[in-house]
Amino acid sequence: MRLLLAAAVLAATLSTAAAELLAPSRMDRLFALPATIEASDDGARLVVDYQEMRDINGRDEIPERRAHATYVDLSVRRAQRDVTVQTPAGNIPHVAVGKAQGASFIVAYLHGQGGSRRQGADDFTFGGNFNRIKNLAAQNGGLYLSPDFADFGATGAGQVAALLKTYANASPQAPIFVACGSAGGAICWQLAQEGDLATRLGGLLLLGSHWDENFLKSPAFRARVPVYLGHGSRDRVFPVERQEAFFRSIRAASPGYPARFVRFETGSHGTPIRMTDWCDVINWMSDHR
Fold this sequence. Notes:
This protein has helices at residues 2-19, 28-31, 52-57, 129-139, 154-170, 185-191, 195-198, 219-222, 240-253, 271-275, 278-287; strands spanning 36-40, 45-49, 60-62, 66-67, 80-87, 90-98, 106-110, 143-147, 176-181, 201-207, 227-232, 259-265. It is an alpha/beta fold. The chain has one domain: Alpha/Beta hydrolase fold, catalytic domain (Rossmann fold), CATH 3.40.50. The strands form two sheets. Strands 1-2-12-11-10-9-7-8-6-5 form a ten-stranded mixed beta sheet, sandwiched between helices. A two-stranded antiparallel sheet has the order 3-4. Strand 3 and strand 4 form a beta hairpin. Helix 5 (154-170) crosses helix 6. It is globular.
């Protein structure tokens, strides 16, 4: 009986591990969320303990500019390319890390106002969290993209959609996860309206970004594409109360919808880019598609 029980536990463990898109790594502990202060909505809403002295000053060699070497693995630069791809929407410069063909998944980061493709490829800013997602992509057979685009309107959204479709055609089995920082959220919400792209989306990550009630009428919503909303409680650009209300509107419109809201207590506008646990969020999204 004990042998049968042990075998069952082992099989369940192996099954769970096999289901994870991103495998556990030695860096997971460094990038895990801080302690939970409050949880509700069956764990879909979390308030976590963000502390500037610990999470910026203790993590960065030069606060907000250069993470300590502990948080960075520069070997991933061997898998990184700064390229331009021709698409129906024009030539799109971007940074690509990992497998350009046959990728197991695709993650794209879309910068906010005043940013560029270089923001999402910077190894040392935001506590090394962009270096983290680059390494996760390279180590797990995925592809990470950080593109330039013209604006946050229809032109920019069209460019991003064209880029994603180009790479999706080269990796037909890969789910696409799109992370949007700040004003970049405008493109996330426009991509949700793309019917032929919505079925390929593995999830949308809004990092210190805004809301769009039209999402509730989108092909992505109908396809139950997972949504992660990370927000600092002291965000002066987009009030946290508005984003939390949007989270509740998603859950009310479709009970059990795969949406998460993480409030970084005392965090500011850029905190979710620094503190979001890519591995945890992407694996959660993968489990709900």
